[in-house]
Amino acid sequence: MNPTPSQPPYPLSNVAALYSNGDDATAMLDAALVQRMAKGDEHALGALYDRWHPLVHAVVLRIVRQRDDVDDVVEEVFWQAWRQAERFQTARGSVQTWLLTIARSRALDKVRALTRLREEPMDGVAGDMVVQLAAEGDPAMDAEAEERRTIVLAAMRDIPVEQREALELGYFGGLSQSEIAERTGLPLGTIKTRMRLAMLKLRERLQVLRGDAR
Amino acid sequence: MTSYGMSHEAAREALAALALDALDPAERDAVQGHVPQCAECRAELASLREAASELTYGVAPVPMPEVHRNRVRSRLVARAGAEGAPASPIVDRPPVALHRHTGEHRHSDLAHGEAVDRAPARLTPASLQIMIPHASQPPQLSFWQRAVRSPAWWVAIAASIVAVSSLYSLLKVSTQRDTLTDAYQMAASDKATRRSVVDSLRLVVEDRDRVIANLTGPQVALVTLTAAGARVPAARMFWNQPVNAWTFIAHNLPAPKAGRTYQLWLVTATEKISAGTFTPSVNGDAIVHATYVLPKDALAAVAVTDEPAAGSPQPTTVPFIVGSNSGR
Q1: Where are the domains of chain B?
Q2: What is the CA radius of gyration of chain A?
Q3: DSSP line for B27-56
Q4: Chain A contact for B187 (CB, 8 A cutoff)
Q5: CB–CB contacts below 8 A, A to B
Q6: pLDDT at residue B244 in the model
Q7: What CATH class does B218-324 carry?
Q8: What is the pLDDT of residues A127-163, one digit of tens each?
Q9: B60 touches chain A (CB under 8 A)
Q10: All structural domains of chain A
Q11: Model pLDDT for residues A161-177, shown as the tens digit of each residue
């Protein structure tokens, strides 16, 4: 398969194999760490932090956008993981998904708190900027995460810009469909359709990460 | 199936937005009322949530500055260590064997993949009792009888318990103190570095704030440019009118030919004003910033033309991507 701008430059079947193996090892290590955290091992918390802080930090920074507040939010993300480690169930998802969900949630909480504090409407996020900035890359990140990011970015590029914008304003901007409609001046029905189509296309493109392409 | 006044079809249509947490409260409640009763929607929602969570992987990891990273880590481990300490001595713990190592063993050894419970076996009055040599053997009974009648023996036992308990507490507090001290010293010793980092970050943040303001300000006008082609270029011009800032963002642009470049134009009824030349990245993305004063109603269109590398005073080719200013 020849590479194209919208597809990863390698056979998709190989990528699926890479992730089916890599994910297993990663999931086992992360699950073991969370298990230790549940038993009160603070050093396991430190190890989990070492593994995931760059991505958690990036997600928090992406949403909060104010450096002064980022450290506190990152700390609260891992602290919540520590407090809730006992309740974590591998059957409900991977540790990284759990952690990044907490990260997004805490970051949006911070943005909303800051917005209330300033008594001004929450800034939207320029969806087009996300891919542009993310595509600049970080040579220090490990190969597996880099591959994963490449696939996600390729999937995002395959989504029409207006659909992607609705998706990103919802996910990273924390805006509801009504808020997005109000902000963009578009009918609510248009936003709903765009968001749904974007999500369906995103899921379809990302099936390769789970090796279960249908 | 209906629940909370919402049909299965309507709920299914809304699952994508629910996965993004983008539903308005009333609709969210209605969908969430339906999902637990519908296996199909539960599976669909789980699948969509998994896909949504992958969005975070599209964000380039940004390592924290070392000082920040270490400070947060130290605080976390110290907080966890302080909370993880028992509130009171464990007096009901089953007696430990004499050969068991009774020191503090909470260090992870991830490299060896150990996953056993290494919670510390704490010294307690109960465990101390079995450290008395041969306590239950008949030949020692006469010794015991003598010992238990001796006040000095009991004083010695009590003193031992107090001493060992105090030693354990001291070690625990000392460990926590060392952790906090390390964190403090780390922060203090890197003051100059931190100031430098803060200064550089401030510049980054100011630059990013400026970009964000120019894209999302309340008086930003938006022009969407379109073109035909196999891989369709798309672009938007954000015009932040109060500060006369123009931000042009484009995707899927083909690379210009050798010796050529792209030139951006603000088109009014009477003239075509150059907003600068640019070359897209290898991915076909481009961002152009410009500052130009233009009356609010003067902009008719935004266009991009293919020009010689040095640019042109006026367009020399037909715009290959153009958008009219129809307002927001």
Answers
A1: 2-58, 68-75+122-189, 218-324
A2: 18
A3: HHHHHHHHGGG-HHHHHHHHHHHHHHHGGG
A4: no
A5: 226
A6: 84
A7: mainly beta
A8: 333 333 333 334 444 566 677 788 888 899 889 999 9
A9: yes
A10: 1-123 (1.10.1740.10), 125-214 (1.10.10.10)
A11: 999 999 988 998 888 99
